[in-house]
């Protein structure tokens, strides 16, 4: 027998069901309930909703409330792995026409955001969940979007199981990276070397390299020596920046989702859903440090209405 949920969550469950049940869903009530609950509470509510009413809560929210608000409410009530599976499946398929024309948040960038920096076990969990939901192979799905051979090799390496071990000789590895960056200046070989390492090794390599070469960090050196812009350079910068400071990198991604003409709400929502919890506190601190304003202030300035309220509630920063 499944454990009984707390009375307060039972109350939420009933109120959510009532709000969804109207001919026009009570969006404000749903934002006030879902936006103020922690991730684990929402997962519990969604599981109990399915058991009580025989309907998937996330799917019901997405069906009854169109647009970005419905998608965000739905994502908030999903298990994070299932939410990521949906984001991977929908990569490059925005429902908003203007967003399909944006240079940022391409399918390749979505794949990087979700797959780069993950452990072998996490990748395996995503693959298994993707197959269960979509009856197809995640790796094949990702590779179908790779037009360049170098990009294809990169994601093959991402999916390749790797033994989680320390460097046999960290100094030699740092010197190898330095030579690739400073002497050979070979973009493809640099990406190939970095992507052959485990996530833990990449983090160790990049952070140690930066501590030794304080006036020529990895990102600075890459941008200086590889001036030809393109997808391969973007992949290399992504994996290095994520390794150097994950929270600061996500803060940058938040800024990118709102810069320029209009806000890419698909991207903004995905960042909120994927980074909820303790890690979001680090992201907000990094954002404030880099942009001299709170993340909530930036969101309030670029979004509006109930969607704006919900985003700020989910990141626990309403002012």
From TrEMBL:
<dbReference type="GO" id="GO:0005544">
    <property type="term" value="F:calcium-dependent phospholipid binding"/>
</dbReference>
<feature type="coiled-coil region">
    <location>
        <begin position="167"/>
        <end position="194"/>
    </location>
</feature>
<comment type="similarity">
    <text>Belongs to the annexin family.</text>
</comment>
<dbReference type="InterPro" id="IPR037104">
    <property type="entry name" value="Annexin_sf"/>
</dbReference>
<dbReference type="Pfam" id="PF00191">
    <property type="entry name" value="Annexin"/>
</dbReference>
<protein>
    <submittedName>
        <fullName>Annexin A7</fullName>
    </submittedName>
</protein>
<dbReference type="GO" id="GO:0005737">
    <property type="term" value="C:cytoplasm"/>
</dbReference>
<dbReference type="GO" id="GO:0001786">
    <property type="term" value="F:phosphatidylserine binding"/>
</dbReference>
<dbReference type="GO" id="GO:0005886">
    <property type="term" value="C:plasma membrane"/>
</dbReference>
<keyword id="KW-0677">Repeat</keyword>
<dbReference type="GO" id="GO:0005509">
    <property type="term" value="F:calcium ion binding"/>
</dbReference>
<keyword id="KW-0041">Annexin</keyword>
<dbReference type="InterPro" id="IPR018502">
    <property type="entry name" value="Annexin_repeat"/>
</dbReference>
<keyword id="KW-0175">Coiled coil</keyword>
């Amino acid at each position: 027998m499944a454990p009984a949920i707390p009375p307060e969550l039972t109350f939420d469950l009933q109120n959510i069901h009532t709000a969804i049940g109207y001919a026009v869903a009570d969006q404000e009530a749903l934002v006030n309930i879902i936006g103020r609950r922690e991730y684990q509470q929402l997962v519990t509510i969604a599981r109990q909703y399915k058991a009580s009413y025989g309907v998937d809560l996330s799917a019901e929210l997405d069906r009854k409330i169109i647009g970005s608000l419905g998608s965000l409410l739905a994502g908030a009530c999903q298990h994070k792995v299932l939410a990521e599976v949906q984001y991977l499946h929908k990569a490059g398929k925005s429902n908003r026409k203007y967003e399909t024309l944006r240079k940022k948040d391409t399918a390749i960038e979505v794949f990087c955001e979700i797959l780069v920096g993950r452990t072998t076990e996490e990748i395996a969990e995503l693959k298994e969940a993707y197959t269960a939901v979509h009856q197809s192979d995640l790796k094949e799905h990702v590779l179908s979007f790779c037009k360049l051979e170098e990009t294809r090799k990169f994601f093959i390496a991402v999916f390749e199981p790797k033994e989680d071990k320390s460097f046999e000789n960290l100094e030699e590895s740092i010197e190898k990276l330095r030579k690739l960056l400073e002497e050979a200046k070979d973009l493809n070989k640099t990406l190939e070397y970095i992507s052959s390492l485990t996530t833990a090794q990449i983090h160790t390599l990049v952070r140690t390299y930066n501590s030794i070469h304080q006036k020529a960090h990895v990102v600075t050196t890459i941008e200086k020596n590889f001036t030809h812009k393109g997808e391969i350079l973007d992949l290399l910068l992504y994996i290095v920046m994520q390794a150097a400071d994950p929270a600061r990198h996500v803060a940058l991604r938040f800024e990118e989702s709102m810069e320029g003409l209009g806000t890419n709400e698909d991207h903004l929502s995905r960042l909120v859903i994927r980074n909820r919890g303790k890690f979001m506190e680090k992201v907000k601190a990094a954002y404030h440090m880099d942009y001299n304003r709170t993340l909530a202030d930036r969101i309030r300035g670029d979004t509006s209405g109930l969607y704006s309220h919900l985003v700020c509630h989910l990141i626990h920063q309403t002012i």
